[in-house]
Every structure is written in C-alpha cells, then in structure tokens.
Amino acid sequence: MLLEAAGIKKVFGKLTALDGAALTVGENEFHGLIGPNGSGKSTLMKCIAGAEVPTQGKVSFVNTDITAFTPTERARAGMSLKFQITSVLPSLTLYDNILLALQAQSSLFDLVFSRTRGTLHDQVMTMLTQFRLADRAFDPAAALSHGQQQWLEIAMALAGKPKLLLLDEPTGGMSLEERRVTGELLQPIKQHCSLVIVEHDLDFIRDICDRLTVLDQGKVLASGTVSEIQANTSVQEIYLRRA
Amino acid sequence: MSVVREAIAGDETDDGMVERVAAGEAGKPVEAGRNVLPIVEGVVLVAALLAPLVLQDYLTVFATRVVILALFALSFDLVWGYAGIMSFGQALFFGSAGYGVALLARDLDITNIFLVLPAGTLIGLTFSLLLGGFLLLGRHPSSVIFVSLGTLTGSYAADRLARGWYYLGGQNGIPSIAPMTLGAYEFSEGPAFYYLVLGILVVVYLLCRFLVRSQFGLALAGLRENEQRIAFFGYKAQHLKAIIFTIGGAVAGLAGSLYAFHEGFVWPNMVGVVVSTQVVLYVLFGGSGTLIGAVIGAVIVEGVSFWLSDNYRDIWPIILGVLLLLVILFRPLGLISFVLGERERVGSFGAKIKEARNAP
To answer: Which single residue of A65, A131, B13, B300 could bond A155 by disulfide (Cβ 3.0 to 4.6 Å)?
Structure first.
C-alpha cells in the first residue's frame, strides 16, 4: 500500500474532529474522500499532509511511518498537497510559480548560481501547456480566473513528480465546464501518481475515482469501490438526511 | 491570443475553457513600467559619484555617514524586504561589529582595513548566525511575533550590556578610535573615505542584486509570500531564512565596522533599539523589497532629518515623524513605488524569458 492512515484521532479543544478515521490508498489509485460538512475530511487530509499533527494514530507512506514528519520531509518523500484555499503566489508570474515548485529540490549552490533554471525551462513550459496555461505564462498569477488558479496550483503540486497528490476541493467555485476540464486534466496523472481527493461534487468524484471512503462525524462510515458505496444504505441515509 | 481572451472575458473560448479575468486586471498592461529600475539605479550612482565634487567638506562627511547607513539598510532589506523576516534587532549586528573593531583598534592596535573590515563582517555574521539559529531553526516554523520580539530583545539586551560593562566603556562607549589604515595611509573623514564606502556599497549592492535575482531569490519570494506553501513543495524554509538572516547580519557587520572608524567612536545606542528601528524606517520609507529603495530611504530620511534639524531646531522630530507616517500610510511600498510598478518590483526569475516573450 502507498498510504495507510489508521486510527487517526484529532481533537481541537472540546471538538473531536476525527475519531479513529482510517484511509488506505494503493498505487495509481484515485481515491475520493466524501462526507457531509464537518465530517472531518479536510482535517484528515491535513493530518496526512502534515499541516496538522494527529492527537492519536499513525500515518504510513511507502512503508515508512511519517506521523512525525514535517511537511518538508513529507514533500521530499513524495507527497504533495493542493490546499483548499488557493495559495498560488499571486504576484509571481505563472512561469515563476511553476519554477518555484520545480526547483524545490535543487541544492543551495544551484539556486544561488541559478544553475537549474535553464534545464528546468522545458519542464515549466510542459507543465503549463498540459494545464492549458502556456499562453498566460508571463502574466502574474493574480490575473488568472479562479478556475485557472486552481489548475495552476494542481500543476505546482505535481511539479515535484509526487507519488501521492492530495487535492482538497479542487473544483470548489468552478463552473460546470471548468469541472469537466479539471477531470480531463487529472486523468493522465494516473500513470505515475495516486490521488486522494476531497470533493463535494459527487458526480465529479464518481467520474474520476476508483475507490471512495465516506466519513461521518470523524469516523469511517464506509469504504469501497464506487459501486459498492453507491449501493451502501447507510451512506444513502446520511446523504438523504442531509438533503 | 491572451489579449483576445482577456478582451472577451467571460465568454467561452473554442477549446472550452472559460476565461474569467478579475475586473480591473483585464486589459491592464502587465509589462507597464518595465526597466525603470536600472535608470533609477544609474541616476543614484551618478549622483553619489558626483556628490563630493559639489558638496562642502562637512557635507561630504555627512554623505559618507549616509552611504554607510545605506549599506546597513541593505542588510535589513534583504532580511525583511526579500525574505519577510521581521528583524527588530538589526543594530545588534551593526553595533557589535562596531564595538568589535573598536576593541581591535584600542587593545590590539589592529586598524588595517584588510583585517578590520573582514573582522567586523565576521562578527556580524557570527552573531546573526547564533541569534538566527536560535530564533529560526526550530523543527517547525517560528511565528513572526516570536522572531520580531526575539530580535528586539536581543538588541535591547545588547544595549543594556554595553551600558553596564566597564570594559566596553559603559554609557560613554569607546571614544577616539584610531583611524583605519592601509599601509601607512590613514583613512580620515573626507572624499577618500567617502569613495571607499561608496565602492564597498556598490560591490555589496551588486552581490545582493545577483542573489535576489537568482533562483535563490525566487525561493525567497516564495518564502516571503507563503512560507507554509513552499514547505509543502519540499523547501527547507527555516534553513533559507537562517541563511538570509546570516547574510544580512554579515552586511550589517561590515556597515557597523565602517561606521565605527568613520565616526571615531562607538556608543551603546549603536547596538540598541533606536538604531534597529531607524533602519526599519529607512527601508519602509524608501521601499522594501527593492534594493535601491533601501538606499534611497536611508538617503532621504537622513537628508531630511539633517535639513529639518538645521532649519526647525525645535520641532523637527515631529515633522519627520509625520512625514514618515504619511509615507507608510499612503505609500506602503515606499517612495520607490511612485516610479516602480509592482511587476518590476517582484521581477521575473525564469530563463529565456526574453525569447519566450518575443515568440509569436
């Protein structure tokens, strides 16, 4: 297994956001994390990515216990995160945003003497082309539409060639057409990367994911293939209850 | 193509992408105001080169002091303007180097320029490495408050220490420091000293310029804008911060040692909070995140103080305070922002930018 999170508990003061949640993701698997608002999806993502430290539980990545790893160490182990709130660097150009992500593992010497920017140029342009942003390469990221900023951010998260990409609500605030394109943009990465995706749009999740985990009140309600989850009565119940 | 897309913002384009450009951004000439920076830098350099030829002697002495303070301002700009580290204790490195070279001159008769300036730089570097290591090199990122209070406390403590320590001259500091020497030549106040510090400023400025325009500079821009984000890319953000903090400390140390020899004495204020705050004001006033802004800020703040104190003997600090407040309130990016656009201030870092931009 690529990622195994087990018995994750996270308490904020009096609030128990996660209460023994678990998540297992295999290689080249697209895994959807769904559940009602406040069920702990984002918190579980943050515990996996290292933005939050779980109160209890263990996270393993490529057979290594990474529970105590910092975000930097996790990134270097091959894990990448796209935040829920877009956090592209608005005053930098798109080109520089991608270069910033690509050069993260260059040595200090290479950075000071700019020894890798020539060799990374093609990769930057390839990423921008892949995410349909090449013609805006030298505009500041702030000038992009919300949807394009999300794509830029996914491109940045993929720049370091991670083994696992964590996407927190990638289609939030997107138009229907932008959602469709996002799905198209994500498909090709399956050849080299697994995906954990938190998303409210169930149609989107159903279209691109292999397996789903449903959280409710900080616990795993069900986990399985998309058709298994669709047939699951307790899952239907919480979504009906919400509706 | 992109212009066309911006013009039809909101419409769906042929490849199905919806191009929505935030209101106000569309049609805005992104490249407007490019290449202002080299012109400003050139003008400042020419003015600085000509200054001693037109200024009276006592003003050349004053101008030398300002150039040294501009070098000090560069050190703070690297740390705050480029890396976003709020150092309220930059004078600690400036002043401790000043005290260090003063002691070398007083106790060991070492005044050779090739010994004292490297020694001062090394003192600034060592102190900033120690303080920066303590404040910045935790396993998890330190908060801005922690770092600003930590540096402030360091500077305040050094001030108290200098005042209370008899060896360092207590309240009076160390007076009558022997002049800096090069063989038999003694650097005393005047045009020679001026051109020496101007030469050093130009060299350090060019080195800083090289650094902030490199890929390392891009990493610093990321650090400044979103430290957490770049940690998730795999950057060792704390290491980057400690490195730039130490470089800043070394530059402050170089400035401090020049200052000690130029003024001929060091005193506790030089390591304290007042001078630490002064350098913050230079950079905010001129424009943080641009090297030339820091230089201009030091020149203008010192120049205006000098002129005001001559002409409005009693109320000049109040006038200066109001001026500083006005700039900080209405030009948060400093005076340089009157001529320098946001795009050029941030700059571009990629290779082959020109060819790519000129491509059809």
So the answer is: A131
| Structural domain range at position B256 | 54-271
CB-nearest to A117 from B243, B342, B350 is B350
Q: Measured between alpha carbons, how far is B58 from B21 in angstroms, rounded to an integer? A: 57
Q: Which of B26-35, B55-64, B268-277 has the lowest mean pLDDT?
A: B26-35
- DSSP assignment letter at A68: T
Q: Crossing angle of helices B215-225/B237-263, nearest 10°?
A: 100
Closest CA relative to residue A86, chosen from B138, B22, B341, B139? B22
Which pLDDT tens digit goes with each residue over B30-49? Answer: 444 468 889 999 999 999 99
Q: How many domains does chain B have?
A: 1
pLDDT digits (tens, 9 = 90+) for A42-65: 899 999 988 888 999 999 999 999
Distance of CA A89 to the CA centre of its chain: 18
B224: phi > 0 → left, psi -120 to 50 → alpha, else beta; which? alpha
Pairwise CA distance, residues B310 & B332, whole Å: 28
CA B163 to chain centre: 27
Amino acid, single-letter form, for residue B111 = T
Taking residues B98-103, report their average pLDDT: 96
CA separation for the pair B127, B75 (Å, rounded): 14
Task: State yes or no: ipTM above 0.90.
Answer: no
Q: How far apart are CA B138 and CA B242, in angstroms?
A: 10
Residue B347 lies in a domain: no
CB A162 within 8 A of CB A193: yes
Asked, for residue B307, whether it belongs to a domain, the answer is no
Q: What is the pLDDT of residues A167-225, one digit of tens each?
A: 988 888 888 888 989 998 998 888 889 999 998 888 888 888 999 999 988 899 989 99
d(CA B78, CA A177): 44
HSE toward the beta carbon, residue B90, CA cutoff 13 A: 33
Q: Is B134 left (phi over 0), alpha (psi -120 to 50) or beta?
A: alpha
Length of chain B: 360
| Cβ–Cβ pairs < 8 A, chains A and B | 155
H or E stretch covering B180: strand B180-182
List CB contacts (< 8 A) between A95 and chain B: 348, 350, 353, 356
A176's CB contacts (< 8 A; 6+ apart) are none
How many C-beta neighbours within 10 Å does residue B320 have? 17
| CB spacing of A145 vs B243 below 8 angstroms | no
- Which of these, A224, A242, A230, A185, lies nearest to A208 by C-alpha position? A185
Q: What token pair was written down for B62?
A: 């004053």
pLDDT above 90 covers a percentage of chain A that reads 45
Q: A148 to chain B: nearest residue by CA? A: B19
Which letter does DSSP use for residue B112 in this model?
A: B
Does residue B203 lie in a domain region? yes
- Asked, for residue B306, whether it belongs to a domain, the answer is no
